[in-house]
Amino acid sequence: MAEGKASRCWPGRPVRAEIDLDAIEHNVRAMCRKAAPASVLAVVKANGYGHGAVAVSQAALSAGASSLGVACVDEGIQLRRAGVTAPILVMGFIPPWEAAVVVEHGLTPTATTKQTALALARFSRERGVKTPVHLKVDTGMARLGLTPPEVATFGAYLETMEPLALAGIYTHFASADQPDKSFTREQYAAFRASAESLPASVTRHVANSATLLDIPEMYLDMVRPGISIYGCYPSAHTSRSIELRPVLNLKSQVARIHTLPAGATVGYGRTWRTEKPARIALIPCGYADGIPRGLSNKGAVLVRGRRAPIVGRVCMDQVMVDVTGIPRVTLGDEVVLIGRQGDEHIPVEEVAQLAGTINYEILCALSARVPRVYLRGGRVVSVQTLTGEL
Ligand SMILES: *Cc1c(COP(=O)(O)O)cnc(C)c1O
Fold this sequence. Notes:
The protein has 12 helices and 22 strands. β8, α10 and β9 form a beta-alpha-beta unit.
């Protein structure tokens, strides 16, 4: 394999998440086309679902997204510090003591309590700025938001606060990714009713990726896709109405190869034992990088275009695989933990299923010490490592 040789001269740590910026742009463009005339808010919380919030934001905005969504204030500040000027909606809870930095960085807050609204108004007045605010309505998730009957009074309350401008109202669906959309329709109806009293100029938005894929009549003024930006479908049940391109490949290299005699054990707890002599390859990444420990004795990696089973427990920083059946495995050979190699493919959904979770969690779990290598036209354009940009 050609990759074998090239991979031996990676700069830095022999672990990398390769992120295809062309694929992100393809996905966002396709979503913008489908959503039009609704605008697209690209959800880049949790470090862009593990892909790197700054790079993803830049790619999404250049592909037609008009704003960004994050979960917490710090995520918004990170984007502002990187020079992002587009509107950034903070979708999570904001305590009153974060109001000052929200205003300072020009973030768009979600206001769900009077205390936070008051603090936002005070700091906006002090700085002489008008702060756009979105309301969140809880229509069935039983998490953040006002109840539908609270919306009218809270909206009126905001109107009394001169420096705040009610710019948007939204809700979030509990089961839009399931085949049965009846609860989603109930949530939608409750949302529409709650927003009825507000001016038409207030941006209404409800659609996550699943809704964008499956329920066009709920696009309203803006859609809020997350997982689909990253080339993944929200569940096995959503339609493939947008052709998404996979974005991420998680790669490493063979760091050691050795032969064990029959009856030897591998790793912590000695959970795997050789029945006959076996060739074991070492991969220098582990659960601290985001490889789920649940893959112990269950998962596989790709080496020389073939599947090598993970043997023994996934360690914090290392994984061992059985390459007995794969000829000519050599030190420095490229290893794929998520993604494609030759004709073989380990989708993130396979990893998630073996680990008892969903694709979202696997992507978000990729830790800061995994270098992010950004590609355009198949070529490396930038590298983000724990110690900075390469
Ligand atoms: C995370 C999130 C989204 C994106 O959801 P996906 O399923 O990833 O498309 C949209 N809206 C809100 C409020 C969210 O928290």
